[in-house]
Design goal:
Helices cover 44% and strands 20% of the residues. With 290 residues, the protein is of the alpha/beta class. The protein folds into two domains: 144 residues, Rossmann fold, CATH 3.40.50; 128 residues, 3-Layer(aba) Sandwich (Rossmann fold). It has a ten-stranded mixed β-sheet with strand order 3-2-1-4-5-10-9-6-7-8, with helices on both faces. 34% of the residues are buried.
């Protein structure tokens, strides 16, 4: 059974992410593991004039407290004892939230990590954006970030922005596993500069190639021409009524990759209002096309 890992900081903006993760795990018949990463206080954080036990169990107390808080959080957000009884809960002590999430994802061989994206202030948006960015770079599996103002948990249309490199096909293959339980349409979009117009035969070859390697019939290809990738994609997302944006993030191996992927993902994380599913290209370097 696949495992979906959801990480929360108990904040209000993470509540929708839990609902999204729960619905996703139900549809995919996957196990949902809800975790919270904390750094327990030292003995000196508790110094006061009040009598204290001679050897306080700070670590044990912290684990118990966070377990209780995490269970209460899930029950309040999901509003169902039955729902909370079907999920697994875990609290992790680690000075680094990212490291704690990544190590747990590796331990359980997570299929997907789900987390909230934005907070209620500009400063928090910056912090959450940076955290999500680092998580995407280090996670052993795709990372799904949910904006706090996204309200739809069902998925009907997924847009995947592609450069049609080998790793793209590996990411699309995994994306199809998410789309299938929803019977969601996957719209693969490629933005080409105006001076690099592609003929009809090239487009047809790409469609043939996609369907050869991706076993999912509810998928279509759109090729657009523009010098402004970000604005063109924003318009495309809006016109396509996308419920989920999926992208492959690559290392800075060239100007095209840097502009199309790293900067674009960062800007969408900052301003987007649609859930963003990010694939790290390093996970798909073994996906070679014959």
């Amino acid at each position: 059974m696949k495992t979906i890992l959801y990480a929360t900081d108990y904040s209000e903006n993470s509540e929708l992410a839990l609902k999204y993760a729960f619905n996703l795990s139900t549809k995919m018949e996957a196990k949902l593991l809800v975790i919270h990463v904390f750094d327990y206080p030292t003995f000196f954080d508790h110094i006061s004039l009040k009598p204290e036990p001679p050897f306080p169990d700070l670590e044990g107390d912290a684990f118990n407290r966070h377990c209780t808080q995490l269970k209460a959080f899930c029950k309040r957000v999901l509003k169902s004892d039955k729902a909370t009884s079907t999920i697994a809960i875990g609290v992790i002590e680690n000075k680094s939230v990212i490291k704690g999430i990544v190590e747990k994802a590796k331990d359980v061989d997570a299929f997907l990590i789900v987390t909230g994206m934005k907070g209620n202030s500009k400063l928090r948006e910056l912090i959450m954006g940076s955290t999500a960015k680092e998580l995407i770079e280090k996670a052993p599996c795709p990372v799904l970030t949910i904006p706090s103002d996204s309200v739809k948990t069902e998925i009907e249309t997924i847009v995947y922005a592609s450069d049609f490199e080998d790793e793209d096909f590996g990411a699309m293959d995994k994306l199809a596993e998410i789309a299938k339980p929803f019977n969601a349409k996957i719209r693969v979009v490629h933005i080409s500069t105006l001076e690099k117009s592609m003929g009809k035969s090239y487009t047809e070859d790409l469609e043939t190639k996609i369907h050869k390697y991706i076993d999912y019939p509810n998928l279509e290809l759109d090729i657009l021409y523009s010098e402004d990738v970000f604005d063109t994609l924003k318009i495309y997302y809006r016109n396509s009524n996308a419920d989920l944006i999926a992208m492959l993030e690559r290392e800075d191996s060239g100007i095209a990759s840097k502009v199309f992927h790293r900067d674009l993902v960062k800007r969408i994380e900052t301003y987007g209002k649609i859930p963003l599913l990010s694939f790290n290209a390093k996970q798909y370097v073994i996906f070679h096309l014959e």
